[in-house]
Design brief:
The complex is a heterodimer.
Chain A: H1 6-14, H2 20-59, H3 66-71, E1 75-76, E2 84-85, H4 88-119, H5 122-136, H6 140-159, H7 167-191, H8 195-203, H9 208-219, H10 221-237, H11 240-245, H12 263-270, H13 279-311
Helix pairs in contact in A: 2-13, 4-7, 4-10, 5-7, 6-7, 7-10, 8-9, 10-13, 12-13
Chain B: H1 2-41, E1 46-50, H2 55-68, E2 74-79, H3 81-90, E3 95-98, H4 104-114, E4 118-133, E5 140-142, H5 143-150, E6 175-179, H6 184-192, E7 204-206, H7 209-218, E8 222-227, E9 235-237, E10 239-241, H8 253-257, E11 264-272, H9 277-287, H10 289-297, H11 310-320
Helix pairs in contact in B: 3-4
Classes of the chains: A mainly alpha, B alpha/beta.
Chain lengths: 312, 328
C-alpha cells in the first residue's frame, strides 16, 4: 500500500467508494453513447442504400433514359401509349417554391432573430421565444389547410389570379414554416457572440445598428448560414403543405401565380398506387434518390461555404 | 430581473405540466374506451380502400350496415381506385373500391402475389359529369371539344376558341382541373374522352372529387370532371354530345342507366377470390335493396333495379340536376 504512487493515492481520495462495477457501468455507458453517435452515419447510409436498392433495377432497363429523367418536363408515368418519366418540371417546382420561400423567410427570419437577441426586453424576449416555438410546432398538414382555404382566397382577391393554389401560395406557406427554425437557430448564433464584442463596439462609439452590421453579423455568420440552410432543408423536404397549397400541376411556371408540383408532393401522391416493383414505383424511388442528392448538395455547399468563411 | 424571469419560467413549466397531465388523462380514457369496444365486438374489421368517387357512398354503407349488423366493423379509406387496387394486389385489404375495371396486368399481379383471382362485383352506375363554373354560359359540350381542351395534342387553351365569353373575366385561359393519376375517374376520362391519349400537362391535379368541384366552383374559367353525385350549387353540369352536332345528353339517372349519356360507367368492388363470412355478408347487403337505397341516396344509379327504381330515381334525378336550371 505504501508503494502506491502519490497520484494513485489522490485518485482514491477524490473518488471514494468507486467500485469495479461502477467503472464497468461507466464504460458500457460510454460505448452506448458512442454507438448513438455513430448510428447517425449508419442510418443515413442505410436509408440511402434501401432507397437506392428499390430504384436501381430501373436504371438498367431499356425504357429508362437518364437524360429524359433529369431534363424532360414530360411526366407521364401511367400513360397507355407512351410512358415518359421526365422530372425536370418537378425539380424546377421544388427549387422554385423553396427559392420563393427563402426570399420571404430569410429577411423576416433573420430580422426577427436580431430583434429578439439585441433589441427586445427580457420579458418580451421570453414571450416571443415561446410563441415562435409554438409556431414551429404547428403540423404541416395544418399549414397546408391554411394554404388551401385562407391563403388561396386571399391570393385570388388580392392578385386576381384565376386559382389561389399556386407557387406563391406554396412559397408563403413554406416561408411561414421555415421562419421559426431560422429565428431560433439564428438567435442562438447571435447569443453565442461574446458580450465583450458588443462592449468593445460600444466603447468605440458604434451605434447599435453599426454594431450589428459590422460586428455581430460577421461574427455569427456561420451560425446564421446554418440557420438559413436548415430553413432550406425544411422547405425542400416539406411534402404535405406543398401538396395542398401548390395546385399540383406538372409544368414549368411562368410566374408566381402558376401552379406547380414538387418532387416530394409527387412521390406522396403517386407511391400509393404504383404497384411494388413496377417501373413507376422504381422511378418514384429514383426521384427520392434525386431529392436526397439535392439536399446533399445543399448541405455540402453550405459546409464548404462555412469552411471557406472560416479560413478567411 | 432574475426573479421575474424565474417566475415566468416556473409559470411556463406549470402550464406545460398541466397540459401534459390533461393530455395523459384524456389519452388514457380514450385508450380504455378503445380496448373495451374491441373486446366487446371481437371481430376483425373489414378493410375497404380505393375509389375516391365511391368513398362517400362506401362510408355511408359502412355506417348504415353498422345499424343492421352491430357486430360488423367496416373501415373505409379513399386514395383513388389505383390505390385500392394496389392494396388488393398486396393482399392488405378485403375489398377494393374501383370506378374503373381492373386491368389484365393488375389481375395477373394480384394472382402472382396472393394466389387468388380478384372477383368483381358491379354495385352501381355513375355518370361522369363535366363541370364548369355557374357563371359560365356554356351548357353543352361534345367529347371532341373536351379532348381538344384536355388532350396533350389539343389546341384549345382559351374559352374564346370555343366561342364562349365568360362575363367579368379578362384572362379567359381555361383552367383545366383534373385528377391525380391514382384516380379511376382520371383513367376513365382518359380512356373514354381522350381515347387513351395523354392529358396535356399543366392541369391542376386534385386529390379528390370534392376538391375538383370546389375549385371549379370558385374559379370562373375552370372546367373539371367528377362523379355526378358531387354536384353543388356553385357548379354547372354540362350536357355531353358523343360527337359534334349530335344532341347533347344530360347526366341524369335515367340517361346513365340507359347508357344514352356518353360518360356512364360502372362502380365495382373487388375481393380476393370468392368472398367468405363477414365480407360476403357485407357485399350481399350492399347488393340488396337496402344497400342500393344508400347508393341511390348518394346520387348514384343502382344496379339491376331499373324498373323499380324510377319512383325513387326521380327524387335523385331532381337532386342531382339542381344546378341544371341555371343552365338556361
Amino acid at each position: 500500500m505504501t508503494a502506491i504512487p502519490a497520484s494513485g493515492e489522490r485518485v482514491r481520495t477524490r473518488l471514494p467508494g468507486r467500485r469495479p462495477l461502477t467503472i464497468l457501468g461507466e464504460r458500457a455507458l460510454e460505448i452506448l453513447i458512442r454507438l448513438s453517435g455513430f448510428s447517425a452515419i449508419f442510418f443515413v447510409l442505410a436509408i440511402f442504400f434501401f432507397v437506392f436498392r428499390e430504384a436501381a433495377p430501373v436504371l438498367f432497363t431499356s425504357e429508362f433514359d437518364p437524360k429524359e429523367f433529369l431534363f424532360s418536363t414530360q411526366w407521364y408515368p401511367t400513360s397507355e401509349r407512351n410512358v415518359r418519366y421526365g422530372t425536370w418540371a418537378l425539380t424546377f417546382g421544388s427549387v422554385a417554391v423553396t427559392a420563393l420561400a427563402m426570399v420571404i423567410a430569410v429577411p423576416f427570419g433573420l430580422g426577427a432573430a436580431i430583434y429578439i437577441s439585441e433589441f427586445s426586453g427580457k420579458k418580451q424576449k421570453e414571450i416571443l421565444k415561446i410563441v415562435i416555438e409554438l409556431l414551429a410546432a404547428i403540423p404541416s398538414v395544418v399549414w397546408g389547410f391554411i394554404g388551401l382555404t385562407v391563403m388561396s382566397k386571399l391570393i385570388v382577391t388580392l392578385t386576381g389570379a384565376p386559382v389561389g393554389v399556386n407557387l406563391l401560395n406554396g412559397g408563403i406557406i413554406l416561408a411561414l414554416m421555415s421562419i421559426p427554425i431560422i429565428v431560433s437557430i439564428g438567435e442562438d448564433a447571435l447569443k453565442a457572440v461574446p458580450d465583450s464584442y458588443r462592449e468593445a463596439a460600444e466603447a468605440l462609439g458604434a451605434t447599435k445598428l453599426q454594431m450589428i452590421r459590422r460586428v455581430l453579423l460577421p461574427a455569427a455568420r456561420n451560425g446564421l448560414l446554418a440557420a438559413v440552410l436548415l430553413g432550406v432543408g425544411r422547405a425542400v423536404g416539406e411534402t404535405m403543405a406543398v401538396l395542398m397549397a401548390t395546385g399540383h400541376a406538372v409544368q414549368i411556371p411562368h410566374g408566381p401565380l402558376d401552379s406547380v408540383r414538387t418532387l416530394t408532393a409527387n412521390i406522396a401522391a403517386e407511391l400509393g398506387e404504383a404497384a411494388a416493383g413496377s417501373p413507376h414505383y422504381r422511378v418514384l424511388f429514383l426521384t427520392g434518390v434525386l431529392l436526397f442528392c439535392i439536399t446533399f448538395a445543399v448541405n455540402l455547399t453550405a459546409d464548404m461555404a462555412i469552411r471557406g468563411l472560416r479560413r478567411k | 430581473m432574475n426573479l421575474t424571469s424565474g417566475t415566468s419560467r416556473s409559470l411556463y413549466a406549470l402550464t406545460a405540466t398541466l397540459t401534459l397531465a390533461v393530455a395523459l388523462i384524456t389519452g388514457c380514457g380514450g385508450g380504455e374506451q378503445a380496448t373495451s369496444t374491441t373486446a366487446a365486438a371481437e371481430v376483425t374489421p373489414i378493410q375497404v380502400k380505393g375509389s375516391d368517387t365511391m368513398v362517400n357512398v362506401a362510408q355511408a354503407w359502412a355506417e348504415e350496415y353498422k345499424k343492421v349488423e352491430p357486430s360488423a366493423d367496416v373501415e373505409v379509406s379513399g386514395g383513388g381506385s389505383g390505390v385500392g387496387i394496389a392494396a388488393l394486389e398486396k393482399g392488405t385489404i378485403d375489398i377494393a373500391n374501383a370506378s374503373r375495371e381492373m386491368k389484365p396486368e393488375e389481375i395477373e399481379l394480384t394472382k402472382k402475389n396472393t394466389g387468388k383471382e380478384p372477383k368483381e362485383f358491379t354495385v352501381g352506375f355513375d355518370g361522369l359529369a363535366v363541370f364548369v363554373n355557374k357563371d359560365n354560359p356554356l351548357s353543352e359540350i361534345s367529347i371532341g371539344d373536351l379532348a381538344t381542351i384536355y388532350s396533350e395534342s389539343g389546341t384549345v387553351t382559351k374559352w374564346s376558341q370555343l366561342g364562349v365569353q365568360i362575363p367579368g373575366v379578362k384572362d379567359d385561359t381555361i383552367v383545366r382541373v383534373s385528377r391525380q393519376s391514382s384516380s379511376g375517374t382520371y383513367e376513365f376520362f382518359r380512356e373514354h374522352v381522350l381515347d387513351k391519349h395523354d392529358f396535356k400537362l399543366g392541369s391542376r391535379d386534385m386529390n379528390g372529387s370534392k376538391e375538383v368541384v370546389e375549385l371549379v366552383g370558385t374559379t370562373k374559367t375552370a372546367i373539371g370532371y367528377s362523379g355526378m353525385g358531387y354536384a353543388t350549387g356553385e357548379v354547372k353540369m354540362l350536357r355531353i354530345a358523343s360527337k359534334k352536332g349530335e344532341p347533347a345528353v344530360e347526366p341524369t339517372v335515367e340517361n346513365t342507366l340507359s347508357k344514352a349519356y356518353p360518360l356512364a360507367r360502372s362502380l365495382h368492388l373487388y375481393t380476393l377470390g370468392e368472398p367468405e363470412g363477414a365480407v360476403k355478408a357485407y357485399i350481399d347487403w350492399i347488393l340488396s335493396s337496402a344497400g342500393q337505397k344508400v347508393l341511390q341516396d348518394n346520387g348514384y344509379v343502382p344496379v339491376g333495379t331499373a324498373p323499380a327504381a324510377t319512383s325513387a330515381g326521380e327524387a335523385t334525378t331532381a337532386a342531382a340536376t339542381t344546378p341544371a336550371p341555371a343552365t338556361n
